[in-house]
User: What shape does this take?
Amino acid sequence: MPHTLLQRRLLLGATCLALLPLPAAGQTLKAGAPILTSPANGGTLTDRNPTLSLQNAQGTYVDAVLIHRFEVYDAARQTLMQAGTVIQGDGQTQFMVTASLDFATTYWWRARAELEGEAGPWSATFSFVTPDAPAPPAPPSAPLSFTDVSTSSGIAPSVLGGHGVMFADTAGNGSPDLYITMNFDVPQPELFFVNNGTGTFTEMAAARGVDDFDVGSHGAAFADLDNDGDYDLPNGATGEFGAPNNIFRNNGQGFFSDATPASMAARAEGTRGLVTFDMDRDGDLDIFSVSGFLGDDDPGGERNELYRNDGNFQFTAITSGAAHDARAGQGVTDTDYDGDGDIDLIAGNGTGRLVVLRNDIGTFTQVTAAGLGIDRDAASGITMADIDTDGDQDMLLVNEDAGGEQIGHLFRNNGGTFTRIQDFTGIAGFMGGFADLDNDQDLDLVFAGDNVCYLNDGAGNFSQGPAIPTAGIDDPRAVAFADIDGDGDLDFAIGAKRSSNWLVRNNVSGSNWLKVILVSPQGQLGAFGAKVAIYPDGMVGASMIGMREARSNNGYIAQDDPTLHFGLGSITAVTIIVTFLDGSVRTVTGVTANQTVTVQ
Assistant: This one.
């Protein structure tokens, strides 16, 4: 039988056919069936395009060079995926599968000998399983580092006198704006930097109605005072000549008008820290401000301001009680330190003991700090955060040491009492702020104006991390966090009195994140006082990833963006549990990473 033409031709089948299997043709070639060798029957592959191998079929009477036909089928759909022929090799013949096979799918294959239109018997049918689809590529990863964007962002150079820093999305467009309170030697306006949506800002305090040109300011807070879904702005007044605090109503899209009530216009204290919080759990935000900066050594007649919200921007001044009379000075933080569901107040005291005001549905009692295990004080700032993810609020105090240098004291919350666990020396600024800088599920630490950050090991122990570019900053005061450019990591602003204010961009990437906007049952944007816990989705008994307490101010006159940020590490989906201040609970499951969600 002539074979010269066959030996010259190499027939490679590469045609993908969408046909049902044809019935096997009758045997017409006097030859045996080939024996399939690899891949092994039923094996799982590491490649979607395997090379199929067999032992050659043998002619019964004539030692001929045979052609081998291969066929590959989708087992579930019984669809022919590829067929082709190859001239036999030396003892074995191989055929490469070039069809586009799916991942994690079972395929059948078989072969037979052919020669000049005659066909031998089919082999046994083998199966193989293609590999699972590979995990999606990780997002581009960059280590934690920081860039000074003060000038390129548009917030510097600026006039001297920066103190408080407050972030909030005042226009409802998803980009947090930045308010900086100003106070120096002469009356001057505040600065309001409107976010252009790209992490750059335009100063528009006068154009938006919040320049507040008076004796200067320290404390302020964005807050939804009328439960209409946007952030209004109470602003404290400071200065030797005295002036009343103000309230600016957000009329929509971040434009404001003065809505100061008569009760507030009648007072002219030297306001420092200011918070908005629902002291009586009636669904609206009340206002507390610290008068003076010394504390115990402030003038004897000086008293704090406390206002109950009566609705429609009407407030009643509370002129007695522990919150009104406490000898506080500098910053104040609103927090449920004892976990009883009421929002308490903790304030600095530059010349006396730390002021702890325990709340019982609007009635305040001043608690001795030492009785809570707090053996240090705060001349300026108190910051609360759950540093060990156990569901309660731990405490950071910033004070001055015997030489007048700033020092930080970190306390672990034991369920309403505290234990000092770490001190920080050689720091800068009037406060420290907590944020998950590297999106690894725990809260890290930045002191205002310091040239390093401190990274959390997950258990609330901190060690020095990457450098922060702060060369040239002078007399830094407060630090607040927000994702200014929408890339999923937290950037931060620093108020500085004797230099331009500062803005630092976070360059980290590669881990997942989530941002949560809260709306209370009463319609209050931000839902101050709510507690948010997140867990890996669908994992019963899994440990909590993170817990945040929605609040007005931290440390020394600083407000983080009320849109809460969680680093998720490699977690891709979570369950969110929100406990609102009125006791109602909302659970949202199946929330995927790397997005902003609203829980209301």
In short: Residues 4-8 form the longest helix (5 residues). DSSP finds five helices and 44 strands in the chain.
